[in-house]
Design brief:
alpha+beta, Pseudouridine synthase, 10-stranded mixed β-sheet, 29% helix, globular, tRNA processing, PsdUridine_synth_cat_dom_sf, tRNA pseudouridine synthase D
Length: 334
């Protein structure tokens, strides 16, 4: 129960751990990110080619100051369709300049009018047609270009640590943004009634909170593997081809044998969270314990540095950078 402390409210828990141990030791310096939206650039890479035909427009937009759900609702209004009919592969932060793909149902005869209306609100980078809605997770990954300002770090030490990370990777934690400010999503999840979650509408409404629960449990398990020194080792019973950890489901973890017993014993320390996953009949999944950035570059410019790298889908850029630097998020500064 290392990641929490008791609360007096309804026997639940608060004081959620939101910072997890680094694999490479203490950070080599400090800095600030997202001082300006242009400091945090994200370009989505689908990793596949559109069909070139079909009832859906596939549009790559450049946006800043707008989160993904807000843009999706705006596209739905333009297209005159339900918001649920607009597709995207992953959510992106609004405190960034992001280049992201969206799909929307649009017969060919309406395409010009729809694109004109979309172009009035966002920069349209590319357009194609596709046979079906773009679904969450349908991407290869994201390319990041991130400027760290007010940098205080030895230049040689920073370059060496960055090279080591590029060579070996880091723990594949979920980023703090998944849990809300000060763990608000976890606190809200702890207040959910498992019985109400058996209703489909209530379950759908609570999707973000349930995702935060599973992500936090994964981070806690990964921190334990890091402390044990075996987070890079494949353990017997792991169904994946590289070391993985549990995205817990309905009293299940996706592993077998002794590993499954260990993971479920760990999950048993959090009965209030496991009750939520049981009520929703959540299917288990696995997530890699290690995250390795690809095609890495570093430019140091006075008291700032620019990190350029690619991450596979599901990886958090902030997790990569906080492995080597103690960072303040400028977008969260009052």
């Amino acid at each position: 129960m290392s990641g929490r402390k008791p609360s007096q409210r309804r026997g639940l828990v608060t004081g959620w751990r939101l910072d997890w141990p680094r694999a490479g030791g203490e950070p080599v310096g400090t800095g600030r990110i997202r001082v300006d939206p242009g400091d945090f650039g994200v370009t989505e890479n689908l990793g596949w080619s559109p069909d070139g035909e079909g009832e859906h427009l596939l549009i790559q937009l450049e946006k800043s100051g707008d989160n993904t759900d807000w843009v999706a609702r705006g596209l739905a209004r333009v297209c005159g369709c339900p918001a649920a009919a607009v597709g995207y592969a992953g959510r992106k932060d609004r405190h960034a300049v992001t280049r992201q793909w969206f799909s929307l149902p649009c017969p060919p005869g309406r395409a010009d009018d729809v694109l004109q209306a979309v172009s009035a609100q966002w920069r349209v980078l590319s357009v194609d047609r596709h046979s079906r809605k773009l679904r969450t997770g349908e991407l290869a990954g994201n390319r990041f270009r991130i400027r760290v300002r007010d940098l205080e770090a030895d230049s040689a030490a920073l370059a060496a640590r960055w090279q080591a990370l590029a060579n070996s990777g880091c723990p594949n934690y979920f980023g703090r943004q998944r849990f809300g400010r000060d763990g608000a999503n976890l606190e809200a999840a702890a207040q959910l009634d498992p019985q109400r979650l058996k209703r489909p509408r209530e379950r759908a409404r609570s999707g973000m909170l349930l995702s935060a629960v599973r992500s936090w449990l994964f981070n806690e398990w990964l921190a334990g593997r890091l402390a044990a020194g075996d987070w890079r080792q494949q353990r017997e019973g792991d169904p994946e081809t590289s070391p993985s950890g549990p995205m817990f489901g309905d009293d299940s973890c996706g592993a077998e044998g002794a590993l499954a017993e260990a993971e479920l014993a760990f999950a048993g320390q959090y009965p209030e969270f496991m009750a939520l996953l049981r009520a929703t009949r959540m299917r288990p999944a696995r997530r890699s314990l290690a995250l390795k950035p690809l095609d890495c570059a570093l430019e140091q410019e006075g008291d700032s540095a620019v990190f350029d790298f690619f991450l596979p889908a599901g990886g958090f850029a902030t997790v990569v950078l906080t492995e080597i630097l103690d960072l303040e998020d400028g977008s969260r500064t009052p």
